[in-house]
Specification:
Radius of gyration: 20 Å
Oligomer: single chain
Strand content: 15-25%
CATH class of one domain: Alpha Beta
Helix content: 40-55%
Length: about 220
């Protein structure tokens, strides 16, 4: 588990650098091929699988798959920090836990490009300001719509909320089924991977951490 933040909930400088790198690296470091290149690659895979890419049912498939990829991986063109920029300070001193539970998401495993389907629980304790609840769901989606491993995605969600909102603490739990092990390989359908990331008061206080975890079903 990564180094804990300070008691105030602020990330140390190394963590902030890592969060910024995680946000910006995917879109800025990779030169994207053209749509024609992508469709040609998909056509090649169809033929490699053993089918005729020119037959009636498949000749438009490369274009359809390219469009699907634009939807599945749109997170590379979105900045999760920007999602959290609009906050509200008129909260009458509210400083208790805020949780958004069971946020459904679909992602893809970066090792096999197989689907990851699951739910996320996101909680934070504000420090003078809050964010619209839909923005928490959008942050989950931004990171889900990239090639992922669940451990990294869990940390990314918690880190960016902590960096932008600077709350007293952040907690994230993800439970998901990975098709790379349910539809291939060891073939264990119904199994779920569970990961968590606790920052600030959620890491420092066992009582606060347990209060959050008791909401995870």
């Amino acid at each position: 588990m990564a180094k804990a933040p300070t008691a105030s909930g602020l990330l140390v400088s190394n963590t902030t650098k890592n969060v910024t790198k995680a946000r910006s690296a995917p879109s800025s470091a990779v030169k994207r091929p053209s749509r024609a290149d992508a469709e040609q690659a998909i056509e090649t895979l169809i033929r490699w699988a053993g089918d005729d890419s020119a037959r009636d049912g498949l000749h438009e498939t490369p274009a359809r798959v390219a469009r699907a990829f634009e939807e599945w991986f749109r997170g590379y063109s979105e900045d999760p920090a920007a999602v959290l920029q609009k906050t509200f300070e008129e909260i009458e001193g509210y400083d208790e836990m805020i949780t958004l539970q069971g946020i459904r998401f679909e992602s893809h495993c970066e090792h096999h490009m197989a689907p990851i389907v699951g739910r996320a629980w996101v909680g934070y304790i504000p420090n003078g300001r809050v964010v619209g609840i839909s923005k928490l769901a959008r942050v989950v989606d931004v990171f889900a719509k990239r090639l992922q491993i669940q451990e990294k995605m869990t940390a990314q969600i918690a880190n960016v909320i902590n960096e932008v909102l600077q709350p007293q603490g952040v907690a994230v739990v993800i439970k998901a089924e990975h098709h790379c092990m349910t539809t291939r390989g060891v073939h264990k359908p119904g199994t779920e991977l569970m990961t968590s990331r606790m920052l600030g008061i959620f890491r420092d206080s066992a009582i606060t951490r347990q209060e959050f975890l008791s909401m995870v079903d």
